[in-house]
Design goal:
This protein is α+β, with helices and mostly antiparallel strands. It contains four helices and six strands. It has helices at residues 2-38, 42-46, 67-77, 81-84; strands at 56-59, 62-65, 86-98, 101-111, 117-128, 131-139. The chain has a six-stranded mixed beta sheet with strand order 2-1-6-5-4-3, with helices on one face.
Length: 140
């Protein structure tokens, strides 16, 4: 019985560590995006997204498909550092969907001289080629 408890304890510890490592890596991607945005580096911000035509971004009732189109939309809508302002993410929930994918529910706060913008998001991350990438983003 004691051996069984030790084995279960080791298995649980390994699973908990693996989850923490994934969550830490995902939080790092979100922090890197926030930092890039705050330096008016839209292309750096986009590094967190999957460079694929299958990327989906949903906002204001419209679905944008593809990394390049999403980048083009950001560049069209945020043409200066006054428009990008200072971004802060608040991550309210990070949870696994299945092995190799997570969803994140959170809020964003954009402080700008041209008027603040705040909203909510649900993002789906997937581990692709050893890196965590956003494969779908729904922002309000």
């Amino acid at each position: 019985m004691k051996s069984l408890l030790v084995i279960l304890s080791i298995c649980f510890s390994t699973f908990a560590f693996s989850q923490s490592a994934d969550e830490t890596a995902i939080r790092k991607v979100m922090q890197e995006q926030q930092d890039a945005w705050n330096n008016y580096d839209i292309e750096g911000f986009m590094e967190g997204y999957w460079k694929s035509d299958s990327l989906q971004f949903y906002s204001r009732g419209y679905i944008t498909k593809g990394w390049k189109q999403t980048l083009d939309n950001y560049k069209k809508n945020y043409t200066s550092s006054e428009q990008t302002g200072q971004l802060t993410f608040k991550l309210n929930s990070i949870a696994p969907i299945e092995d190799g994918s997570y969803y994140i529910m959170g809020q964003y706060f954009l402080k700008r001289t041209v008027g603040d913008a705040n909203g909510e998001f649900i993002i789906i991350f997937k581990k692709i080629d050893g890196e965590w990438k956003i494969i779908a983003d729904m922002s309000t």
